[in-house]
Description:
Elements: E1 4-16, E2 22-34, E3 38-42, H1 49-56, E4 64-69, E5 72-73, H2 79-89, E6 90-93, H3 105-115, H4 124-134, H5 150-161, E7 168-172, H6 180-197, E8 200-204, H7 208-211, E9 216-221, E10 224-227
Parallel strand pairs: 3-8, 3-9, 6-7, 7-8
Antiparallel strand pairs: 1-2, 1-4, 4-5, 9-10
Helix pairs in contact: 3-4, 3-5, 4-5, 5-6
Amino acid sequence: MAEEILRLERVCKTYNVGLPSEAEVLHDIDLELDHGEFLALMGPSGSGKSTLLNIVGLLDRPTSGRLLIKGRDTGLLHDNELTHLRGHTIGFVFQHHLLISAFTARENIMMPMLADRGFPSAEIAARADHLLAEVGLGRFGNNLANNMSGGQQQRVAVARALAMNPDLVLADEPTGNLDSKSADAVFELMRRVNRESGTSFLLVTHNLDLARRCDRIIEVVDGRIAQH
Ligand SMILES: Nc1ncnc2c1ncn2[C@@H]1O[C@H](COP(=O)(O)OP(=O)(O)OP(=O)(O)O)[C@@H](O)[C@H]1O
């Protein structure tokens, strides 16, 4: 197995914003992320962080350059192969938790497993309960997502991201909407998962205090990596 979970080689991304103008948002991005590494991605608004995360998360393709995940060149894969790789390798946590508000915490965590036809259905509820306990919400499985606090909802979102046992979690400002105590708790939860199960994390954050507690910080400025 490749040493790194993720490797970007000279990745560029251009958006067509109406001819003749094109906007190059990412320029020659080189980046590696090792298995088990917890990386903070910082940078000013509009610098390209979400664009980079979308590419790494296989939600969008680079205009040029190569993206390798676990040593596989994703540019050679068809869309259905990318969907499979994404579902089994990558978990997502967003600033807005994107839970289904009318579903319980348990049901929200079950969703990725229900969507994956390969997951043994008899194990789904038990795995959801295991993950609820992992994120400190063992007693809250039957609570509607809507009735939970922001910090609790984000813990459910972390549990949902872990449902398929991903190698890498991409977290786009997951603590941006939380008070500092809840933000700290959600960050520490992700850090513990990282330490205990070796899941790699790529965390977009504007919070320097949290970033300093990651293994490494990189900064994107005007679509380029400013420091390694
Ligand atoms: N689909 C799109 N089409 C055209 N331009 C886009 C598109 N998506 C993003 N952009 C532009 O790309 C640049 C980078 O945006 P991106 O959202 O990646 O930045 P960001 O660093 O994540 O910003 P923020 O911290 O505010 O979320 C911006 O100038 C944005 O307007």
